[in-house]
Amino acid sequence: MTTWFVTGSSRGIGRELVERVLARGDRVAATLRAPKRLDDLAERHGDRLWRRRLDVTDTAEVERALAEAVAELGRLDVVVSNAGHGVFGAAEDLSDQQVEDAIATNLTASIQLARRAVPVLRAQGGGTLVQLSSMGGHLTFPGFAIYHATKWGVEGYFEALAREVEPFGIRTVLVEPGMVRTSFYDAATRVPASEPYRGGVADQEPLPVERMPGSQSGVAHAVIEAALSDDPPLRLLLNSDAHELVTGAVRERLAAFEARREAAFAADAEQPRAY
Hints:
Pfam families: adh_short
InterPro entries: NAD(P)-bd_dom_sf (IPR036291), SDR_fam (IPR002347), SDR_oxidoreductase (IPR051911)
Strand content: 15-25%
Protein name: Short-chain dehydrogenase/reductase SDR
Oligomer: single chain
Family: Belongs to the short-chain dehydrogenases/reductases (SDR) family.
Shape: globular
Keywords: Oxidoreductase
Radius of gyration: 20 Å
């Protein structure tokens, strides 16, 4: 029986993942701000569902939740960092508090959870860290600047971390969905555009949820398969839109780099300069 630790379990992909893991007979340490939201699952699955209230921006709470889960369940095989929050609007229009909250929830909390989980997994001989990222960690859309900032940060942190912890038998998976039909968009904060941005590219509504190609069930299924595989991928790019948009963005970026190759090499040390 595999034991999972999942943050942000109350809705969306996190809730779907908890349901599917329980359905396959595994145990889940589910953390969320309101544990009562999982009462229905507790009734069906009994002590295979372990619940704790957790605000992921409180590092002391994160550390305590991990310690309690290990003490009561014995081990954690897969740690899933899923909690996140969206703030959409022109970068200039966001308040300082909105910027700080987005970074605290989407980036700092993910880093701190991983830092506390690594010693736990190392002590037991290994395990898997799953970090929910996004296709937005490779490309950008106007109006999503702070969200992209957090996801690009997540990508860099976990790519470096993966190489550091691999010798301990710890694998890291960055899950990069495209647009998925979840309640994430309904829960996101939308900041009204100020006068200079009204009607511009940062003042557009996201694609309606019913037209998004990704499904919660599809993402959750892919996460479970990857986490339990013998050789999980560092990056798990999911959904057709993510594949097309990310591969296109990477090709464009490479072409731009190649076009400036001569200028890049000219900046090396000891190169003669002609002005």
